[in-house]
Amino acid sequence: SSGLRLGMNGTAGTPSISWIADPDTGLFKTGNGLMSLACDGTECLRTSSAALQTVAGSAGSPSIAFLTNINSGLFSAGTGILGIAAGATECMRMTSTEITTALPLRAPNGSASAPSYSFTSGTNSGFYFSGTTVELATIGTTRFQFNNNGIRAYANNTYDLGDSSMKWRSV
User: Fold this and answer.
1) One-character DSSP codes across 38-95
2) Which of 62, 90, 116, 139 supports an S-S bond with 75, CB 3.0-4.6 Å?
C-alpha cells in the first residue's frame, strides 16, 4: 500500500501530525476509528464515522461558534442540556422535555388561520395578536378576545358560559 503511515498514535500533548513551531497542535488517534484534533495540548475535536464531537464550552465561550462572532453559538450546559448563547450570555436551554429561555420569547403577530402560538396537530388553533388584543382561534376561526377590558366572545350571542358540569361562577 502507499500513502502516509505513522507508527505512533500520538496524544493531545504530542499529536502524531503537528507543526514544528506548534508541536502540541495537530492530529492524533484516540482509538479504533477515532481521530482527534489537539489545540495547545488539549483535545478540542473528535471525529468518527458516527459523530463529530467537541468540548462542552460555555455561554462565554461556546464550543460551536463563528469566526467573526466567537461568543455566540452552541454549548453543553450540562448532561442532556443544549445551551444557546448570544453575546456571551446564555439565552436558551433545550432538553429532551423542555425549552427554557432567559429572554422574552416573541413571535410574529399571526392570524386566526395561522396563530403565532399553535400546536403540532392543530396549526390553525392557538393564540395570535391583532391590534391591541390577544385572540384565541380554533380551527382557523377567532373565538375569544383578551384586551384591557377583559375577555369577550368574538361573535355576539354565540357561546354558552359553560354547561351543567362546568360553568362560570357569575356573569
Assistant:
1) EETTEEEEEE-SS-EEE--B-SSSBSEEETTEEEEEEEEEETTEEEEEETTEEEEEE-
2) 62
Using CA atoms, how far residue 39 sits from 13, 52, 65, 97, 130, in Å, is 9, 16, 16, 34, 53
d(CA 133, CA 117) in angstroms, rounded, equals: 14
What does each of the 171 residues of the chain score in pLDDT, given as a tens digit? 566 666 789 999 999 999 999 999 999 999 999 999 999 999 999 999 999 999 999 999 999 999 999 999 999 999 999 999 999 999 999 999 999 999 998 999 999 999 999 999 999 999 999 999 999 999 999 999 999 988 888 877 777 777 777 766 666
pTM over 0.90: no
Angle at 142 between CA 138 and CA 143, to 5 degrees: 75
The residue type of 155 is: A
All three cell numbers of 125: 388553533
Locate 29 and state its grid cell: 488517534
